[in-house]
């Protein structure tokens, strides 16, 4: 595909970006605060900007997609005030009213799915097929929570006093701050925003600075859906430390929902302690993927590849340690490598036939390289890949398979967040469950087995918040999404997703 050179325009948007979208109104470069698009004359005094780039083309000038205006501390404080003011009335709206708002957003996302997917593919780098899948997945949360919003009810609890009744009322918690990562720039927002709106909360959203264009496009759809001003605020900024501290310490913000690293989650939790906010965190993972000796090897290979290499391994639930029983290890490894050789096409997300895209930036590349070098220096066997691909671009790395990986290697202990699959032999069920649980985190886990007794045994024994049995794909709106241990707490999506945005008020009615 021939890509025109980037050149600046008054709108700070590249000609390439505008040429690729049908609905150019989706392209926004300023924050959305209290129902208005920020500008020096109405909301913000900031002249600070940062550049959004296509990781597939970086560092070429052609990689530049747009220059985005960075919101100030004062902008965030204004957004919090707007959300607090809007909450006074929004909390009293009916579930059916909020349901209709969410259905409007759901339909708007589907109506614009091609353009939204293009934005994701450009600023995130994932292939167009994956980007389109994310848009549909992201929209499904608005559909799901539209259905949930009118079903939020309390209950009547029997009292020990025969002349009293106890009522439990579910009420929205208030202003919610939402902070999301770059790897799913739309879905990580909608999974949180859908629940917040269903509950009757108002929001201040800070998307990742690597991928703000998708979030701002969503804000445009919010505006078109005629949400009341102040209910949804989307602010872009590349100083995550400043924003996180501000949101955590402001007493007007009653809840923080964050998806990101365990290290940052711990810091946000500490910063939130002064105001005792309600928190829900989806943090780091180190997912085990176990292939037992009775598994269907071909299906396990397909599931492992789908789980490990989706978005080039840059997902929080991807398989990070692949355990294979010693009796089928050689067969699995051979088929795993062969399928990757035959199926994988590396390249830019919008190019025809591409299956896997680049890493997001150099920091990710450095970790991938360090894990491969550490593992091979300690005896791991390089079965496939292992090299950076500067011929494709600075952020490309071969999909890589390492054999004979052991617990002493960094890749066993740390989340790689990149396209490297470590294969680890095991001999018994007890041994592999112990190895799988030998980590401080516990987000997702997977295993393949035909033994129904083992299915229940292992599922109950694994220390993870989510488990895929005979499947490498677990994410959908109906799933209670979240982890245990240092992978965080709280659940998103599912019938439980609204609960983290509610408080339960007990009312004792006497003299009945």
UniProtKB/TrEMBL annotation:
<dbReference type="Pfam" id="PF00171">
    <property type="entry name" value="Aldedh"/>
</dbReference>
<dbReference type="InterPro" id="IPR015590">
    <property type="entry name" value="Aldehyde_DH_dom"/>
</dbReference>
<dbReference type="InterPro" id="IPR016162">
    <property type="entry name" value="Ald_DH_N"/>
</dbReference>
<dbReference type="InterPro" id="IPR016160">
    <property type="entry name" value="Ald_DH_CS_CYS"/>
</dbReference>
<protein>
    <recommendedName>
        <fullName>Succinate-semialdehyde dehydrogenase</fullName>
        <ecNumber>1.2.1.16</ecNumber>
    </recommendedName>
</protein>
<dbReference type="InterPro" id="IPR016161">
    <property type="entry name" value="Ald_DH/histidinol_DH"/>
</dbReference>
<dbReference type="InterPro" id="IPR010102">
    <property type="entry name" value="Succ_semiAld_DH"/>
</dbReference>
<comment type="pathway">
    <text>Amino-acid degradation; 4-aminobutanoate degradation.</text>
</comment>
<dbReference type="InterPro" id="IPR050740">
    <property type="entry name" value="Aldehyde_DH_Superfamily"/>
</dbReference>
<keyword id="KW-0560">Oxidoreductase</keyword>
<dbReference type="InterPro" id="IPR016163">
    <property type="entry name" value="Ald_DH_C"/>
</dbReference>
<comment type="similarity">
    <text>Belongs to the aldehyde dehydrogenase family.</text>
</comment>
<feature type="active site">
    <location>
        <position position="282"/>
    </location>
</feature>
<feature type="domain" description="Aldehyde dehydrogenase">
    <location>
        <begin position="56"/>
        <end position="506"/>
    </location>
</feature>
<dbReference type="InterPro" id="IPR029510">
    <property type="entry name" value="Ald_DH_CS_GLU"/>
</dbReference>
């Amino acid at each position: 595909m021939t890509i025109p050179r980037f050149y600046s325009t008054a709108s700070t948007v590249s000609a390439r970006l505008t040429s690729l979208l049908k609905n150019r109104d989706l392209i926004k470069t300023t924050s959305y605060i209290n129902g208005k698009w920020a500008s020096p004359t109405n909301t913000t005094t900031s002249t600070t900007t940062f550049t959004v780039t296509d990781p597939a083309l970086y560092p070429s000038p052609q990689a530049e997609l747009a220059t985005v205006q960075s919101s100030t501390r004062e902008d965030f404080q204004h957004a919090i005030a707007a959300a607090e003011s809007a909450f006074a009335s929004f909390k009293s709206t009916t579930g059916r009213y909020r349901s209709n708002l969410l259905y409007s957003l759901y339909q708007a996302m589907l109506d614009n799915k091609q353009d939204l997917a293009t934005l994701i593919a450009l600023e995130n780098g994932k292939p167009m097929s994956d980007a389109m899948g994310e848009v549909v997945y992201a929209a499904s949360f608005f559909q799901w929570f539209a259905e949930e919003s009118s079903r939020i009810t309390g209950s009547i609890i029997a009292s020990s006093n025969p002349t009293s009744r106890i009522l439990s009322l579910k009420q929205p918690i208030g202003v919610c701050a939402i902070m999301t990562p770059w790897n799913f720039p739309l879905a990580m927002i909608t999974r949180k925003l859908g629940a917040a709106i269903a509950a009757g909360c108002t929001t201040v959203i800070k998307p990742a600075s690597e991928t703000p264009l998708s979030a701002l496009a969503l804000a445009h759809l919010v505006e078109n859906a005629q949400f009341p001003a102040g209910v949804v605020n989307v602010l872009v900024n590349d100083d995550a430390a400043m924003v996180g501290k501000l949101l955590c310490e402001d007493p007007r913000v009653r809840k923080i929902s964050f998806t990101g690293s365990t290290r940052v989650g711990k810091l946000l939790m500490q910063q939130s302690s002064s105001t005792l906010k309600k928190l829900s965190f989806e943090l780091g993972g180190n997912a085990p993927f176990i292939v037992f000796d009775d598994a269907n090897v071909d299906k396990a290979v397909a599931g492992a590849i789908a789980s490990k290499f989706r978005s080039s391994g840059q997902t929080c639930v991807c398989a990070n340690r692949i355990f294979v029983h010693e009796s089928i290890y050689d067969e699995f490894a051979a088929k795993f490598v062969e399928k990757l050789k035959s199926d994988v096409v590396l390249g830019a997300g919008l190019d025809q036939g591409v299956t896997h895209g680049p890493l997001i930036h150099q920091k990710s590349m450095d970790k991938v390289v360090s894990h491969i070098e550490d593992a091979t220096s300690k005896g791991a066997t390089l079965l496939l890949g292992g090299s950076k691909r500067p011929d494709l671009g600075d952020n490309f790395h071969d999909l890589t398979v390492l054999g004979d990986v052991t617990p002493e290697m960094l890749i066993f202990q740390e989340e790689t967040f990149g396209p490297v699959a470590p294969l680890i032999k095991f001999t018994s069920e007890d041994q592999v469950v112990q190895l799988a649980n030998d980590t401080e985190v516990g987000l997702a886990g997977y295993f393949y087995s035909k033994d129904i007794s083992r299915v229940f045994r292992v599922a109950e024994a694994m220390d993870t918040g989510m488990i895929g049995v005979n499947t490498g794909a677990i994410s959908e709106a109906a799933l209670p999404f979240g982890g245990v241990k240092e992978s965080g707490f709280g659940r998103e999506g599912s019938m439980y997703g609204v609960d983290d945005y509610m408080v339960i008020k007990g009312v004792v009615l006497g003299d009945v």
